[in-house]
Amino acid sequence: MPAVGRASCPPTAGGNAHRTAAGTAALHKPQEPLLQPIAISYNRAHHRFAIFVAVVTFFLIIAGALVTSNDAGLSVPDWPTSFGSLYKIPHLVGGVKFEHTHRMIAQFVGFLSIILAVWTWRADPRRWMKYLGLTALSLVIAQGILGGITVLFYLPPAVSSAHAALAQTFFCVVVLIALFTGQNWVEEIPLVEIDRERPSLFALVLFSIVVLYVQLILGAMFRHHGLSWWPHVLNAATVAIVLTWTCVRALSRYSGLDGVRRPAITLLSLLIAQLCLGFVAFLTRVAWGHDAVQPELPMVVSTVAHVAVGALLLATTVVLAAQVWLRIPVVEERIPSRERKQVAA
Amino acid sequence: MNKKLWAAMFVLGLLALLAGCSKKENTNEEQTTSPSSEMKPSATATPIDPATAASVSGTVTFGGAAPKAAKIDMSQDAACKGNNVAETIVANDGKLANVFVYVKDGLGDRTFDVPKDSVTIDQKGCRYHPHVLGVMTGQNIEIRNDDETTHNIHPTPKDNREWNESQPPKAAAIEKNFAREEIMLPVKCNQHPWMKMYVNVVKTPFYAVTGEDGKYEIKGLPPGDYTLAFVQEKLGEQTQKITLAAKDSKTVDQGFKP
């Protein structure tokens, strides 16, 4: 049975080392600057803004998926201008409707990311959070440049796939910012359970992220005509096994931890939905739609939903990883021996 | 060199790269030589004796029941009205249209002048006219837009240079050519994803595209042994070996099966 206790010591400098919890400061010596407590209070406006950016980013991913599924990536042939203008909105018909809408939402997300980065830099005392805000901004800039390059070079599969993968990476970073600015993360003294099993749950979650990321790249390469469908379908089995293993471990051992149980249940539900959507997308695109004279609605709906749920799946796994990192420390590696007694039940 | 200077150089380099990519591409891939639409011999072309020239003609057929043509949904653009049936396989009474027929082999090192006349691709009713086009390497192609909506013309070649340009209603014709031989080079419009056509680029003037009656005719061939190729966008390529004597007028039919 895992050891359970209230965390009087934060498991990580990146986790709750910044808390003002009374016991935190006492447990750390001055020579551990990374674990120095930093006065921080929950900033509701900042947190809600981060959630807003994450939601808009999710819609941006859907808009991007609509561009690909409708084969509209080159309907606006120039970049950074659209039909020669930086600000005029073209007649939104045909493929232009999808491509230009995607560009407008992307510009909006870029603008929001600047605000988020500046706000985080100014309002959040945690140094690593400041850098996380800057990371988000850097990613969205890189993403915009990749989007431009893929238009100017007529959608090379590698660049288009990188654009797709980076989109979800950016989404995960913004979701993490929303998580780390949340009231629970900032103010709660988490209930901690020690993980003595091998592989540890944290290792399993990290492995889940890796296989999901590989799956994301394989799927993007298939969608952008750089690879056949079968590597993506084969890897889906690996994803299903690894994620199921991770969720079962999390739910069977740590169901008492809300922060772990909730994302684990969400992850399992999304996995089931994603496998079903993947099957439907395969039917509508590969089996039935390979000779279609134009993108058909069932194919567009199923493939876009597959991309959207895929993004949620990856983001949920990243959230689970953060929660496991916070709440389920791996006993030998991360808890100094003198502290094990204090957290043991 | 300090970090700021490096960063400034990187940003400038990136902007220069993007600016270079954004520049409007040259309309022509390569300069054409002085062409002759009547195939008159020139200093570079290999002369053909008109007194011995032969011809080949025939009908291309489609065996079995013709597949039902897929319907196109043009509802995403109100300006798109017209025939909304796909042209993937057009077979009327067993006669197969839109088959590109050309002399694939047998002309050796002969060279031919590029015709002076342009060939035309017309965008009308959100369709390309014609659906299959034959053109010589370097020959001018004039692309018109007769629709009340913007199209973009986007060839996706394997051996030629790719380009993608938009063309608003009533805009001036776009003129292009292709420098290298390529059969069934797809051209599409990313604004109207059902719009597809194929350009066939060859080095000789000996080609034809079957009409709705499945018929084709190639004239002016010098006597010799040839490989005649029949290419359909979906059904692929079939070939026949033929021998043409002087002044021959041979009939060569070809059948495709589903």
Rg over alpha carbons of chain B? 22 Å
Q: Give the helix/strand class of chain B.
A: mainly beta
Order of helices and strands of chain B: HEEEEEEEEEEEEEEEEEEE
Number of helices of chain A: 12
Biggest interface and residues each: A-B, 32 and 29 residues
Shape of chain B: globular
Tell me the fraction of residues in β-strands of chain A, as a range. under 5%
Task: Describe the sheet with the most strands of chain B.
Answer: 5 strands, mixed
Helices of chain B, by number, come to 1
Q: How many beta-strand elements of chain A?
A: 2
Q: What is the percent of helical residues of chain A?
A: 55-70%
Structural class of chain A: mainly alpha
Q: Record the strand order, biggest sheet of chain A.
A: 1-2
Q: Short description, anyone?
A:
The complex is a heterodimer of chains A (345) and B (258). With 345 residues, chain A is an all-alpha fold.
Write up what this structure looks like.
The complex is a heterodimer of chains A (345) and B (258). Chain A has 345 residues and is mainly alpha-helical. Helix content of chain A is 68%, strand content 2%. Chain A has twelve helices and two strands. Chain A has helices spanning 22-26, 44-69, 94-123, 127-152, 157-180, 183-187, 201-223, 230-254, 258-287, 297-327, 331-334, 337-343; strands at residues 4-6, 191-193. Chain A has a two-stranded antiparallel ribbon with strand order 1-2. In chain A, helix 4 (127-152) runs antiparallel to helix 5. The longest helix of chain A is centred in the C-terminal third of the chain and has 31 residues, at 297-327. Chain A is globular, with a radius of gyration of 22 Å. The N and C termini of chain A lie close together (10 Å). The termini of chain B are far apart. With 258 residues, chain B is mainly beta. In chain B, a hairpin with a 2-residue loop joins strand 5 and strand 6 (127-129). At the A-B interface, helix 3 and helix 4 of A face helix 1 of B.
